Known about the structure:
It is a single chain. By secondary structure, the protein is mainly α. The protein has one domain. Helix content is 70%, strand content 0%. It is built from 8 helices and no strands.
Amino acid sequence: MLAMLAVAGLYASLPPSLVGGAPRWLLVAIVAGLLIAILIFHYRGNHLVHQVLGYVLNSFVTAAMIFSLALLIKEVTDHDITPRRLLTSAASLWTANFLIFASWYWRLDGGGPHKRARTPGHTDGAFLFPQMTMTADAKIAADEQDWEPRFMDYLFLAFNTSTAFSPTDVPVLSRWAKFLMMIQAVISLTVLALLAGRAVNIL
Length: 203
């Protein structure tokens, strides 16, 4: 929830030209509305609707981010953006990128957070976390026998993908996860390439 609110705040900080002329508060309002609906269905125990609304929310903010990135690329190629605005806009989109994909991984891995919570010990998923490779004795010694990934684990994974363009210490097992990580890495590389290209032009 906090990650999506942060994404909405980052989107609202973008200049008007990067939101397609729409009011910047509109995405914040849509995200807030969907989050409220998600919370309502969560507390009512309707996890199916909760899950579907989560997918809708993630899809919406992902599309908005890619749209803004396309507009940023156009402004750079048209030489219609100042270095300061490029830096702040690119930083916002780069941060939103790993927040959004962390949310995707969290919602999709192992059937989603609700299913993971109902299964003691995380032994099967799209990502092979280090705790999953520990022996039974090692898990007991480390008090990790009921370990399951939390949002921070997926945030760390997404951050590494955006910086190192690889999952580092977490191998990827599922094809859908590999596909999403490739998209995330391409978006991150595009943003960094725009910054690097502009820096070369300035020099």
